[in-house]
């Protein structure tokens, strides 16, 4: 009887990682959890991938519920390819963070789009959705930096329970051409998933999402479908510095 009980306990322990994958996520983010009380409104480097030329930071701003993030990357590709990927909402599931659905609600102009995104949440946490507005400030001959602003507007469309409406998925992205068909990307933003969310889950997302998105964007810009697309873009694009 004792042996049977001992064996049952071993089987239960062995199955824990399969039954509760969230435990693995929590463990992965333990280093940042330890630093939680030490985070200030100064940027703290959390990832430096020299192979992919990607860096990410976090900070805890006064008056904000969660951490803000910042990322920088030098990616292979052109500004034109970047814009084609960015405006192709139907394929956001292939590269953006845990997307279940993404679509344009309304094209207000060539540089302003109302959008809707549904995100898959970590295990045990309700999925999220967010409507918002994406605006672009095109390059000029004198200023070769393309500026993209994303702003969540939770009340833009009615909520759809059991999805939890995000309060913020806000960011500013600056894309500048580099020599040799490369781009320099600078992104800074803040995400509030809304509702109740475990600290480990939000910390894991804020740590992993900016890096994952940049890696995914690099992969998408390599696709011939974007590199060889000759469809006219809605505004002028400059691929050289």
UniProtKB/TrEMBL annotation:
**Keywords from the named record:** Signal
Record flagged with keyword Signal:
yes
Note the superkingdom of the native organism: Bacteria
MF GO annotations? lipid binding
Q: Does the keyword DNA-binding apply?
A: no
As given in the record, the signal peptide range reads 1-26
Task: Spell out the InterPro entries in the cross-references.
Answer: START-like_dom_sf (IPR023393), START_lipid-bd_dom (IPR002913)
START domain span: 43-213
Q: Which SUPFAM superfamilies match?
A: Bet v1-like (SSF55961)
Question: What protein does this entry describe?
Answer: START domain-containing protein
Q: What is the species of this protein?
A: Fluviicoccus keumensis
């Amino acid at each position: 009887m004792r042996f049977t009980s001992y064996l049952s306990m071993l089987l239960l322990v062995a199955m824990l990682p399969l039954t509760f994958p969230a435990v693995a996520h929590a463990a992965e983010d333990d280093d940042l959890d330890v630093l939680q009380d030490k985070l200030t409104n100064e940027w703290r480097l959390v990832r430096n991938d020299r192979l992919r030329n990607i860096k990410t930071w976090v900070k805890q701003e006064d008056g904000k519920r969660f951490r803000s993030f910042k990322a920088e990357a030098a990616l292979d590709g052109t500004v034109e390819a970047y814009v084609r990927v960015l405006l192709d909402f139907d394929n956001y599931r292939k590269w953006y963070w845990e997307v279940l659905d993404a679509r344009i609600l309304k094209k207000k102009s060539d540089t302003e789009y109302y959008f809707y995104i549904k995100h898959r949440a970590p295990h045990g946490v309700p999925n999220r959705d967010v409507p918002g507005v994406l605006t672009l400030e095109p390059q000029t001959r004198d200023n070769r930096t393309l500026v993209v602003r994303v702003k969540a507007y939770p009340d833009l469309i009615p909520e759809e329970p059991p999805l939890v409406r995000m309060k913020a998925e806000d960011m500013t992205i600056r894309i500048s051409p580099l020599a040799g068909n490369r781009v320099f990307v600078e992104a800074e933003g803040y995400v509030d998933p809304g509702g109740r969310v475990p600290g480990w889950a939000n910390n894991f997302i804020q740590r992993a999402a900016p890096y994952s998105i940049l890696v995914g964007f690099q992969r998408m810009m390599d696709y011939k479908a974007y590199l060889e697309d000759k469809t006219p873009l809605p505004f002028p694009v400059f691929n050289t510095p």
